[in-house]
Amino acid sequence: MLELSALGLLQREPLHGYRLKQRLELFMGSCISVNYGAIYPLLKRLEERGYIEVMLEEAGDAGSSRKVYGITAAGRRRWRQKMLEQPQESWVKGRARFLIKFFFFSDLNVEERIRLVEHRLRICHQRDEYLNSQEIDYMPSDPYQAAVWKRAKSLLNSEVDWLNQTLEDLKQEKSLVIALPKDSLPKDR
């Protein structure tokens, strides 16, 4: 998820490692843990794979230089691949991955956004079915455990409502795009 996030932010603007870490913490701190021990090895790996490149080196505060990284065409393709993949993963990790993807929805076309939201909705419905099947046999008698259970169900229901509204909005957007003359549409990304 860190690779997806870093490439997505570098698509927006070139950044050095410290600024990238700040942006990741600001925008994705609720989804991923970010530390310097992960950022600099990630940048090195992305550079070695040709997904990013050093755009310039600036003088740092302590006399050392700072590398400013920008994304390459290969990095944009890699980001798009990571955005559209649907890995099998835990419930918590899947939620975090979807929120990161949602942050970058403006960089996708409406059909891709719809597919991602529909997939997340299916996962949420599966989770709801699972929780409902477990509730009868495993509902905790401890009031605090029961409160956590209720909170988890409430969060799930809230997410489903939000996804349904988002899907409705996207479908309206798609119908507007279809209705526009082709020469008035923005060029595909």
The strand line-up of the biggest sheet is 1-3-2
Mean pLDDT: 89
Number of H/I helices: 7
Overall outline: globular
Indicate the structural class.
mainly alpha
Distance between the termini: 22 Å
| Overall number of strands | 3
Strand content: 5-15%
In sequence order, what are the helices and strands, one letter per element? Answer: HEHHEEHHHH
Helix content: 55-70%
Radius of gyration, taken over Cα atoms and rounded to an integer in Å: 20 Å
What does this structure look like?
This protein is mainly alpha-helical. 67% of the residues lie in helices and 9% in strands. The protein has helices at 2-12, 17-28, 36-48, 73-84, 91-103, 110-138, 143-179, and strands at 15-16, 52-59, 65-71. Strands 1-3-2 form a 3-stranded antiparallel beta sheet. A hairpin with a 5-residue loop joins β2 (52-59) and β3. α6 (110-138) runs antiparallel to α7. The longest helix has 37 residues, at 143-179. The protein starts with a helix and ends in a 10-residue tail after the last helix. The model has no long low-confidence stretch (mean pLDDT 89).
